Amino acid sequence: GQQVMQIPQYQHVQEGEDFTTYCNSSTTLSNIQWYKQRPGGHPVFLIQLVKSGEVKKQKRLTFQFGEAKKNSSLHITATQTTDVGTYFCAGTHGSGNTGKLIFGQGTTLQVKP
Amino acid sequence: DTGVSQDPRHKITKRGQNVTFRCDPISEHNRLYWYRQTLGQGPEFLTYFQNEAQLEKSRLLSDRFSAERPKGSFSTLEIQRTEQGDSAMYLCASSVPGQGREKLFFGSGTQLSVL
Description:
The structure holds 2 protein chains of 2 kinds. Chain A is mainly beta. Chain A is 0% helix and 53% strand.
C-alpha cells in the first residue's frame, strides 16, 4: 500500500544545533504537509508544499519538496527548547483535494538546554 | 475558543463495551475527519464527511465502527464491542475545502483505553 516513511525516529540535540527530518513516499505525492505535535498535544499544521522542488521557509524552519515529489525534508536551524515535539510529514495522492492524509511515523525532537 | 472540540478527553472501558465519542468542528468548516493515533505512530485516516455525507471510509474501519454527522455539524464515532486493540487516541479534524489543498485543524483527541 501507499506508505510514507520518516527518519530518524528520534533526535536529541543540544540547544543551538541544527536538526533535520526526512520523509520518503513509496509513490508520487500530490502535495505534502508538515505538522508538529507537542508532548501530550495534538498535531498542528505547519506548512504545505505542492510544487516539485519547492522550498519554503518559516523563520528558522526550512521545508523542501523533492523534484520527483516523493520526498521532503524539514530543517531547523539553531534549535531552541520550544522546538521540542514530534514532527510529522503527511502526504496526499491523486488530486490531493481532500484532507485524507498518509502520515509518516514522525520524528521526535528533544532539545537539551 | 473556536477550535475543534472533542469529548470526552479520556475514556476507560472494559472489553466488549460500546463507546461513543463526539467531535464539534470549527463552525464554518464543512469537512470533518476522524483519525486514530497509537503511541509512537502518526495519525491514521479512518473516515471523513462533507456536510452530512460520509464520503470515504478506510479499510481500517471495521464493522464495529460507525460514524455519523447527522446535521452536518457535530459528529459521533461509535465503537461497538470494544477490543484491546482499539486502545488509541481518536483525533477529529476539520477543514474548509476549495481553498487549495486542505489544511487540517485537529482537536485534542479522545484517549481510549480498553481493559
